[in-house]
Amino acid sequence: MSIFHQLASGKRQTVVLYGCSLTEHGAWTIALKDWFEAYYPGLCTVLNQAGSGQNSDWGLANLEARILSHKPNLVFIEFAYNDAHFDKFEMPVARGASNLDQIVHKIKEANPTTEIVLQIMNVGWDAPNGNRSCSVRANLERYNDNYRVYASQHKLPLLDHFPIWLELKTQQPDTFQICVPDGSHPTPEASLKYTWPTVKAWLENAMAEAKA
């Protein structure tokens, strides 16, 4: 039975959000917590266990403390954006794929019924702050593809926010730069406008399927 079946039957559930600063500081995470509270008041604990400036090496190393110890029923995972940061991490694409596989397997080993949702986040740009948020992630799509391929192969839900943000960057560059002022992190308003709707749609579809 899915987490939504369990919630509908009055059973308390735990949701863990895992990734880099795009999760730790993303306004979409607050909207997600509010969504669960609105539909299942008092039944769902949402824990934001992401780490700013971290990649999937950190995600794997901290899995026990950050995820497994909480015995989650649903986990959202994203690390591709920082896996792609070659100046800071120099991570081979294959290691990003291996880390993702190990993270998922360890979660499933701890509890085979835990549901896992993969995410691919926004694109960056080289804002005038010297961070070179786009340039240092020149191969970002290769790391994003780790998630696309893995989700397809293992039949996991994938929330791919990248095309929405890339379209905004390409077609409305001035608006995009206002929405992502530091080159990486959407403003709260932009997060709710461009990232949250995809998450919300998945939640609503999953809830509807559980009721069907």
Question: Secondary-structure map with pairings?
Answer:
Elements: H1 3-8, E1 13-18, H2 21-24, H3 27-39, E2 44-48, H4 56-61, H5 63-66, E3 74-77, H6 80-83, H7 93-110, E4 115-120, H8 140-154, E5 158-160, H9 162-171, H10 173-179, H11 188-211
Parallel strand pairs: 1-2, 1-3, 3-4, 4-5
Helix pairs in contact: 3-11, 7-8, 9-10
Number of strands: 5
For the termini, the CA-CA separation is 13 Å
What is the highest CATH level, the class? Alpha Beta
Helix content: 40-55%
Question: Could you give me the name of the CATH homologous superfamily?
Answer: SGNH hydrolase
Envelope shape: globular
Could you tell me the mean pLDDT? Answer: 97
How many separate helices?
11
Largest sheet: 5 strands, parallel
Overview of the structural elements:
- The structure is a single chain.
- By secondary structure, the chain is an alpha/beta fold.
- It contains 11 helices and 5 strands.
- It has helices at 3-8, 21-24, 27-39, 56-61, 63-66, 80-83, 93-110, 140-154, 162-171, 173-179, 188-211; strands at residues 13-18, 44-48, 74-77, 115-120, 158-160.
- Strands 2-1-3-4-5 form a 5-stranded parallel β-sheet, with helices on both faces.
- Helix 8 links the parallel strand 4 (115-120) and strand 5 (158-160).
- Helix 3 (27-39) runs parallel beside helix 11 and helix 7 runs parallel beside helix 8 (140-154).
- The longest helix is centred in the last third of the chain and has 24 residues, at 188-211.
